[in-house]
Specification:
The protein has about 550 residues and is mostly helical. The chain has helices spanning about 50-65, 75, 80-110, 110-130, 135-150, 150-165, 170-200, 200-220, 235-240, 250-255, 285, 300, 305-315, 315-340, 350-355, 360-385, 400-405, 405-420, 425-455, 460-485, 490-520, 520-530, and strands spanning about 15-20, 20, 30, 255-260, 265-270, 390. It is built from 22 helices and six strands. Strand 2 (about 20) and strand 3 form a beta hairpin.
């Protein structure tokens, strides 16, 4: 363990920050911006609200387009549902490793070129998919698109950490998860109707068109968010090292400003310094430079291919949140896989469009969960921080996930038992919606806990999380058919629901012991944070 741990104040481990100043006259409190922005107007944290949200909207579009779908290729090409499931599982496996190879390039050359090139590649792969003829085509397009699509999960968290403050990330991550679920749940719906009206190949032609639109948007609108805060002149050293700076009375009098939350709500905030307008702001074309070359040699950046695994197994919080996120993702994807293989058979005999309509319940459930839990995540964190003297602990995010835990197994039980007994389709549909409501706060809390606790190593952390998440999905999808053949659909989903319950209840352990773990592993955290490029402390 690094010697850095000895210099860490146990009251202020990584992730613990002061986000409210409760010393204001009249008992009012003010939100303190964490992480602290620099004085540079080009710092993404200093961007106007519309620029932040435009970038996030483009990233969200990218996420939706990178969710997997397929038309009923088996009708024309003779592919069995087992083969389609295997290709889906192979894609999940490719998602495991995609980030390991591509994220180092995002750390070296910035986020923008990776988004641009990956969108262009996905457009080409969609054209290939539209012309698919063989099993080889099926497997290759799934594997290659998922290797590139892994960036949709990794780069998003890097972007959130780049541009949003701690008190905004709960809502932002919930919105991200909502967009990701839209891609998973509504793609079969759109694909089903396109298949019936134009043929399954047009599912992929439309994907190529939409990726082309996204490519144009990224080329002309997406700005680079990678920013080296350590290189800015005029920022006092103590501003970089003090994890919990307190503004002076003079600072508050001269530079109290109004900020906004991630989606427009006015928030009073305290800033201990102002933007230095003598620093020239980049022109439009400078903002759209294709890449930003970091001075760090690529040999150093390449270490991020294996550092995620070291972080995974040395920092329990990262590993546990990876498992939570992985199991919650499996709770979304495994039922979708089951629908295609079960509800096309008697007594349901659903066609492609009817299977697609079964994506509406989880979409509605996810939307309700996002509407309820998105704002609640940040407001509960602020409320608990206020009760804690203005000090925020990342574990405060986890209470919301615990409160919604029972909905996940309840929904899975209804879905599995309903399908097994051939009940009316309303029961499994309702089960999908119920579990989706519970999945949202659990997934959002896991991602936000990671971003809040391990901001400086979020790139490596999320690569590790993506690996575990897709490994779990791969295992469940591969095991689904033989597992169901052995014990039946009912007992598969009962077991699946119990596994998800045990995993989610682990949040209680981190609520009470998470801070102690952050204290004990502060040295390890700082050891890896020093190897990051241009990171800034909370």
């Amino acid at each position: 363990m690094s010697n850095n741990q000895s210099s860490v104040d146990p009251a202020w481990p990584p992730g613990t920050v002061r986000i409210e100043d409760i010393s204001q006259p009249g008992g009012d409190s003010e939100v303190i911006l964490q992480p602290r922005p620099t004085r540079d107007p080009n710092d993404p944290l200093n961007w106007p609200l519309w620029r932040k949200n435009l970038n996030f909207a483009l990233v969200s579009y990218y996420v939706v387009m990178n969710r997997l779908t397929w038309g009923p290729q088996n009708l024309e090409l003779g592919f069995s549902y087992a083969l389609l499931n295997d290709s889906y599982a192979a894609g999940c496996g490719a998602l495991c490793i995609g980030g390991l190879f591509l994220v180092p390039f995002a750390l070296k050359y910035g986020r923008r070129p990776i988004y641009v090139f990956s969108t262009a590649i996905q457009c080409g792969i969609s054209v290939w998919s539209a012309k698919m003829q063989t099993v080889t085509d099926l497997m290759l397009v799934n594997v290659l698109s998922c290797i590139v699509g892994a960036l949709a999960e990794v780069l998003v968290q890097m972007t959130v950490a780049d541009v949003y403050f701690v008190h905004q990330r709960g809502l932002t991550n919930t919105v991200y998860f909502w967009f990701m679920t839209v891609g998973v749940t509504l793609a079969p719906l759109a694909g089903g109707f396109i298949t019936q009206s134009q043929g399954w190949r047009w599912v992929w032609w439309w994907m190529a068109i939409l990726f082309g639109v996204g490519l144009a948007a990224f080329v002309f609108l997406y700005e680079e968010t990678m920013f080296d805060a350590s290189s800015i002149d005029g920022v006092p050293v103590e501003d970089k090292l003090d994890p919990n700076p307190r503004p002076t009375k003079e600072d508050l009098e001269t530079s109290t400003i109004k900020n906004h939350d991630a989606f427009g709500e006015s928030q009073p905030t305290c800033e201990a310094f102002q933007i230095d307008r003598s620093i020239p702001e980049k022109t439009y074309w400078q903002k759209l430079a294709l890449w930003t070359n970091s001075p760090v040699p690529f040999s150093e950046v390449a270490k991020h291919c294996y550092q995620p695994f070291l972080i995974l197994f040395k920092i329990p919080g990262v590993f546990f949140m990876a498992v939570v996120y992985g199991v919650m993702t499996a709770c979304t994807t495994v039922p979708v896989t089951t629908l295609s293989s079960v509800m096309t058979l008697p007594p349901y005999n659903f066609d492609a469009s009817q299977i697609g309509l079964m994506g509406l319940p989880p979409f509605i459930g996810t939307t309700l969960g996002a509407v309820i839990c998105g704002p609640l995540s940040d407001s509960i964190a602020l409320s608990l921080a206020r009760r804690n003297g203005g000090i925020f602990e990342p574990e405060m995010r986890l209470w919301l996930a615990v409160a919604f835990t029972p909905l996940v197994p309840a929904g899975l039980f209804m879905f599995g038992i309903g399908l097994n007994n051939g009940t009316h389709w309303l029961l499994p549909a309702f089960g999908l919606g119920v579990s989706a409501v519970g999945i949202v706060p659990a997934s959002g809390a896991a991602l936000t806990y990671l971003t809040d606790s391990y901001t400086e190593i979020i790139a490596d952390s999320v690569v590790g999380v993506t690996f575990i998440r897709n490994l779990i999905s791969t295992v469940f999808v591969f095991a689904l058919q033989p597992w169901c053949n052995r014990v039946g659909i009912t007992w598969f989903y009962v077991t699946f629901g119990l596994i998800s319950t045990v995993v989610l209840l682990g949040n209680l352990f981190f609520i009470y012991q998470g801070k102690n773990l952050r204290i004990k592993l502060a040295g390890t955290y700082h050891h890896y944070s020093q190897k990051q490029l241009g990171s800034r402390p909370n």
